[in-house]
Amino acid sequence: MKIGLALGGGGIAGCAHLGVLMALEESGFDIHCVTGTSSGALIAALYAYGYSTRQMLGMVSEITPKMLDYDIAAVFRKLLRGNKVKLQGLAKGKKLYDFVFSKTGGGTGADAQRPAAFVAADLKGVKQVVFATQPLSGELPGREQINDFRLADAVMASCSIPLLFQPYRFGERLLVDGGVLNNCPVEEARALGADKIIAVDLTNIEHQETSYDSMINMLGRIVSIQLSMQVKQTCAQADVLLQPDGAGRVGMLDFRQTTSCIEDGYRYAKNSMGRIREALIPDLELPAMAEPMVPSLVLH
């Protein structure tokens, strides 16, 4: 049986995917293919390229506010000149691109060690653009498939949150965060050959007592509401849906919460292991589950 993992977007909350992956590996699940949108695409690309979860944990310290390379010069010119200067996004995205480029050695989809797909949205064509490491099977309407690409290009396109990052140009396309159209690519995992699919959704629209006194907080909340409504339909096609609740309450750009998100994803997946096994391997006799212990590598 081939298991596919679909990783949803969620900003910093995407670090929870690492905890989920670690828990699945410890429980003996072999992931055949992985798909992702936005922060989920970042984790999916590194995992597909061949990094272990522990190796990726070692990279978490590099995920800091410095990755947001705000285009201060453009903002300043906009303030001075008004309509004469066009501003498509606050951050250029070069630092995030360089991070992925460095970790993957500038590699292409062909260099991935397991099948993977990453979703972006085309502003001009109003369609999903799926960067896939191999041709996708079946009919996937409303999508353009790209099989020749650098992993850094796919991740940057998928992570280009509107207004925060400038749209990413790929050929004639103008691409933004894939969550605009598909925040948890379940169908793509099926099209990569998965028999069973685990979807990880990090959206959360529970009542939150906050003042929303900044543009970033407001934007994050609006995005979460829109994504949550969309994801309900998408994730209904998965065999198992995981929704780490703690990670879902983290601000989109709250870089202080990277470790807590990893821990939350790990604990949630461990506590859900009985349900996961029952859904994926219904005839398996399940042993009693011990209380999950978060690995010290996560805590430190």
From TrEMBL:
Signal peptide: none annotated. A motif (GXGXXG) lies at residues 9-14. Pfam families: Patatin. Residues 5-190 form the PNPLA domain. InterPro entries: Acyl_Trfase/lysoPLipase, NTE, PNPLA_dom. The keyword NADP does not apply. A motif (GXSXG) lies at residues 36-40. The keyword S-adenosyl-L-methionine does not apply. SUPFAM superfamilies: FabD/lysophospholipase-like. Keywords: Hydrolase, Lipid degradation, Lipid metabolism. PROSITE patterns: PNPLA, PROKAR_LIPOPROTEIN. A motif (DGA/G) lies at residues 177-179. The active site is at residues 38, 177. PANTHER family: NEUROPATHY TARGET ESTERASE SWS (PTHR14226:SF29), NEUROPATHY TARGET ESTERASE/SWISS CHEESE D.MELANOGASTER (PTHR14226). This is Patatin-like phospholipase family protein.
